[in-house]
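note to self — DONT lose this again. spent like an hour looking for the file last time. sequence + predicted structure for the chain T wanted, 305 res
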Amino acid sequence: MEQKLSPILVYAYNRPDHLKRCIQSLQANDLATDSDLYIFSDAARDEQDSDAVSQVRQYLHTITGFKSITITERPVNWGLARSIIDGVSSTLKTSDRVIVVEDDLIVAPHFLRFMNEALELYKDEERVGHIQACDFTHDPSLPDTFLIKFTGSWGWATWSRAWKHFNPNGQQLLNELESRHLTQQFDFNGRYGFTRMLRRQIQGKNNSWAIRWNASLFLADILSLNVGRSLVQNEGFDGSGTNCGSGNLYQSDLWMDVLPVEKISPVTENLAARKAFERYYARTNSLWAKAMRRIKRTLKGDFGK
């Protein structure tokens, strides 16, 4: 039987060099030539970004190496959150699955193979709603794949059945987290401020779609299939990204071999993996760790947040 391949959604803004490296890494996957590629190019926020956006759009029309290429050039600036929500929602009207990549991501040669195999293997498993192919913890105790109540947003995939749970209303999500006394668990036992991130989204201090997707599946008790060997590397920590600062806090090393996909049974959260994330966030998100990073950035002349 011919393998069913998911459409690939790529989101681009004003980073032509990042985008080229992202596309080249996708092209290096052997399933690229049989995959449909959808690219969403946001318009410039201001005159300062106009030239870079023009360079991105010129490059888009030179891309080859995929079964089909569909380019959407937004006439006005939508911002990443609106663009991702709309792009995923519209694609899932005609497809039951999507793979999503942003322009600052480099994927491994077997990324598409892993994602498509996982999407097919778990397509009917209602308790699994998300696939995340990036690992930044570098924790050797993590298995190749595991289930966890946490949705990473760097190289991910989902199904139309799961996306129906997405609630864009941050206030409703926060109210439910608080009324069910789940904020501590949502924050990895208080080790990372995901609830604070959600509050800031509500206040308009960030525009994160990912925190709302994370909360939506968390509240629905739906798990994510995560990897312990990273198939994605985020280059956005050079200060060029919308939501990524500088530094190497979330750097990952690409796993260049095939990563096997096996059905995990029973379909329950891997509590040891959850503890590994708690350890990681305790080590990197403490006041002392934050102070040390700020001092190091200052000494290097990096005054970003």
